[in-house]
Every structure is written in C-alpha cells, then in structure tokens.
C-alpha cells in the first residue's frame, strides 16, 4: 500500500478561489477585508513569510499592508502601534510576525491585539473559546490541518490521534481541535517515555517536533493518517519534514508532503480568518 498524498498546495488553491468569490461579493457591499502585518527587524525567514502572506492576500482580493519596524523598536512603541491598529476601522486583521526581538515580550504583544482582529488565533480569549468549542478565530496551522483531514473525508470522530509536540502554536491547539471533533487525543513531547509505542497506536499521527526525519515507519501504524507539520532545511538547502516520507508512505493510508503540505494551508487559513474578522466587525452575515 502506498499512501494517498494530501496536497496542501492544491487544496489551498481551491480555497483561495472560493475566498476570492466571497471577497468580490463583500466588495459589492462596500467591504474590503484588510490585513495589516507588522514585521520587526531583518529576519530573512520572517521577511519571506510576510511576502508569502502579501502575495496570497492579493490572489484573493484581500487588501493588505506591511508595517516594517527596525529591530531596535521598543515594546512600548510596538504596543502603541497595535493600539492604533485596533482603533483603525479600516483594519480588520492584525498579525505581528514572530519571532520578536528579545526586548519585546511575545505574551504582551499577543494580548494587546484586540480579540476581534486576532486573525492568528493566539489571543487568550480566542484560545479560551476554542477550548470551549465556541465559534472563534482558530490558530492557522491547526485550522489548516483539520481542513486537510476533512477535505479527504477522513473520519476523526472516535479515532485515536497522537500529537507529537506541545507548542502553543501547533501542538496544543491541534490536539484541542481534534478533541472538539470527538477524537481521543494523546499528547507526546520530549519527556515522553514510550514515544514510539504511543505513536504506533495512532489512527491519526501529527508530527510537530522540528527535527528532520525523526518519525520513521517504526512510529506508524499500518493504515494511519500522517500529518507532517515540520519544516526543516537540510544542508543542501532543500526542505524536509519531521517524518521520513519515503518509509512512512509505505505504511500510511494518507500523508502530507513537505513542501506542498501543511505550509500553504497556514497562510490560507489566515486569509479565511481575515474575511471572518471583516464580516464580524462589519456585522455582515454569511
């Protein structure tokens, strides 16, 4: 058996076409969804991500702007800018690109963004709503993962999902979203004793640990669904995931590649959240 590939790039293209039609309909009602991205410093990876967000927004007709600040920006200056964006009625979504310079506390920045404009889905109020299963902005990568599973009609309810990784950005929230879909969820991390044994019991395995090819076929149950969240750059410059794709695809029923897997879906769900924010702030139904 060779696994069926869940191609995030193709699914992302489909969803962006749907969103483009939705944005055109909103524009007819006088509403142009707008995303403002704040970029601090010269981190090349961050600059690349921000460019990708700008390009994807343009493809769907969403208006976007980038505020670039020097690495020396103080926390007070950044919080002042966020307050101005919170009050600007033309801005529907605010995203501060992480990581931040050491003088700025990430927690303070996340909490400063108004929950109604928190299109990253990291504000404690939105995280709390997600935990309670209420309608809210979902963190983009976990939201993308659930969307990918549903795109293939993969049954989540009653399945055993194992999440390897416990970050606030991916591991913890994706486990909660799977739980909200009635999966039985096990979290594994660097202190987990019997990691391989637990992973090999998973119907749905989510790998988000940030180590290239750490998850080999030995960790995968025959017929499992494998979602690879890792993005690791090898010495030759190529990108690869946390899963050893070649061996894993011979045991899994479905698998995501790297690249063209979870990555493109993250930006797509950010745009989906931006449209949701624009409609919410403008009291437009649908």
From TrEMBL:
InterPro entries according to UniProt: Aminoacid_DH-like_N_sf (IPR046346), NAD(P)-bd_dom_sf (IPR036291), THF_DH/CycHdrlase (IPR000672), THF_DH/CycHdrlase_cat_dom (IPR020630), THF_DH/CycHdrlase_CS (IPR020867), THF_DH/CycHdrlase_NAD-bd_dom (IPR020631)
Gene Ontology MF terms in the entry: methenyltetrahydrofolate cyclohydrolase activity; methylenetetrahydrofolate dehydrogenase (NADP+) activity
Keyword entries, A-Z: Amino-acid biosynthesis, Histidine biosynthesis, Hydrolase, Methionine biosynthesis, Multifunctional enzyme, NADP, One-carbon metabolism, Oxidoreductase, Purine biosynthesis
GO biological process, alphabetically ordered: L-histidine biosynthetic process; methionine biosynthetic process; purine nucleotide biosynthetic process; tetrahydrofolate interconversion
Domain Tetrahydrofolate dehydrogenase/cyclohydrolase NAD(P)-binding: residue ranges: 139-279
EC number: 1.5.1.5, 3.5.4.9
Catalytic reaction(s) noted: (6R)-5,10-methenyltetrahydrofolate + H2O = (6R)-10-formyltetrahydrofolate + H(+); (6R)-5,10-methylene-5,6,7,8-tetrahydrofolate + NADP(+) = (6R)-5,10-methenyltetrahydrofolate + NADPH
Protein's pathway: One-carbon metabolism; tetrahydrofolate interconversion
Function: Catalyzes the oxidation of 5,10-methylenetetrahydrofolate to 5,10-methenyltetrahydrofolate and then the hydrolysis of 5,10-methenyltetrahydrofolate to 10-formyltetrahydrofolate.
Family: Belongs to the tetrahydrofolate dehydrogenase/cyclohydrolase family.
Protein name as catalogued: Bifunctional protein FolD
Species: Oceanobacillus polygoni
Gene responsible for this protein: folD
């Amino acid at each position: 058996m060779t696994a069926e590939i869940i191609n995030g790039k193709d699914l992302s293209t489909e969803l962006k076409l749907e969103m483009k039609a939705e944005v055109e309909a909103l524009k007819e009602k006088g509403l142009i969804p707008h995303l403002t991205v704040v970029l601090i410093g010269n981190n090349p990876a961050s600059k690349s991500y921000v460019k990708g967000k700008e390009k994807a927004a343009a493809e769907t007709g969403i208006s976007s702007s980038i505020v670039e600040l020097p690495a020396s920006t103080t926390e007070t200056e950044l919080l002042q800018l966020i307050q101005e964006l919170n009050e600007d009625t033309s801005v529907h979504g605010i995203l501060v690109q992480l990581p931040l310079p050491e003088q700025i506390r990430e927690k303070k920045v996340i909490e400063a963004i108004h929950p109604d404009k928190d299109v990253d889905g990291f504000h404690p109020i939105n995280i709390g709503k997600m935990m309670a299963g209420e309608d809210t902005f979902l963190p983009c990568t976990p939201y993308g993962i659930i969307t990918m599973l549903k795109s293939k009609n993969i049954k989540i309810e009653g399945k055993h999902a194992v999440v390897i990784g416990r970050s606030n950005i991916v591991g913890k929230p994706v486990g909660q979203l799977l739980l909200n879909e009635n999966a039985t969820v096990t979290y594994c991390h660097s202190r987990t004793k019997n990691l391989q044994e637990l992973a090999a019991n998973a119907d749905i395995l989510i790998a988000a640990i940030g180590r290239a090819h750490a998850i080999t076929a030995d960790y995968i149950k025959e017929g499992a669904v494998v979602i690879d969240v890792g993005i690791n750059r090898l010495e030759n410059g190529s990108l690869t995931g946390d899963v050893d794709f070649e061996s894993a695809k011979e045991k899994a029923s479905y698998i995501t590649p790297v690249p063209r897997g979870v990555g493109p879906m993250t930006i797509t769900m950010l745009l989906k959240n931006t449209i949701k924010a624009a409609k919410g702030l403008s009291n437009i139904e649908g």
